[in-house]
């Protein structure tokens, strides 16, 4: 008898970013493994809902033909801000609407409810669903919350943080299985558990057909930054890097979105940086194509301790496109880049050294070729979805 799984997630196709793409891959691949999969999610709205009126974002025909398996609930609170109360009401509304939908399905026979964080509030919706349906609960952890709130300095009320940390422990302990997308999360989670629990490492990565086989070459040396322009990234350092690269006549593509985007756009205009191009958010396919045109990529995370456990999805995207990484990161992400020789890692504040390395590699095409080959091999060996989904599929069956 086929197993039946309900995925409960805030982020799902066609929502841009690694989270939406991740949940789409899990939905498609588990379905291909003869598992009956349904999805409960919200209407795509990040960074703005109107963006998804463009049909180019709805480019996955397999998912488009599975709309009977996907329930999208409307959310009134769609404003993304750095105000903690605004975000809290947004998350609580999602929790309420998911709980209501799960209550309506209380007589359905799901073997598993697969819930993805952040935010943690929807986990408690899923827990109610678990009780109502007598299902097992699989918890996917994509972010160490509330530690990440502390890391971006959006929350300094100790009593609230203390409450959230208690909810975090409860969340880990009530799950039947925990899935993580960064191996750096494992030790943190195990320390919160009362007893040993199965933890599966399922990293972000590409599908086979997304791996760039032939990099090609462009006339002009190009550098790219792709990803969030938010609180966890240091936009000040990115601005400095843009200014210096422009002075060396190096083309710098920034494919960014988030609450700091307008600030970065204003900086480019006021500084009259002719070699810097800020791109609008686009589809995954177009994003990978842009990354593939670049010779080097940039990754930043601030130096808060929590971010040492994170493996940003964009770093894997860079390597998927054979684009070596110049990174100001620590911990898990730094180890991956260093151990597999897919780029160079620097201290978070060493912007000057990062720029020097870019200028050095610009004159060393043979070294760049070696780094590109390492990127491709690393992704094929460790990050292919088709390989990594097998462990989760085996557990479900």
UniProtKB/TrEMBL annotation:
UniProt KW Nucleotidyltransferase keyword = no
**Record-linked InterPro entries:** Glyco_trans_1, Glyco_trans_4-like_N, Glycosyltransferase_grp1
Q: Where is the Glycosyltransferase subfamily 4-like N-terminal domain?
A: 19-205
Q: Which residues cross the membrane?
A: 112-129
Q: Where is the Glycosyl transferase family domain?
A: 208-377
State the source organism's domain of life.
Bacteria
What's the short name of a Pfam family annotated to this entry?
Glyco_trans_4_4
What the entry lists under CDD domains is as follows: GT4_WbuB-like
The answer to keyword Ligase applying to this record is: no
* PANTHER family the record matches: SULFOQUINOVOSYL TRANSFERASE SQD2
Q: What is this protein called?
A: Uncharacterized protein
UniProt source species: Saliterribacillus persicus
| Lineage per the UniProt record | Bacteria, Bacillati, Bacillota, Bacilli, Bacillales
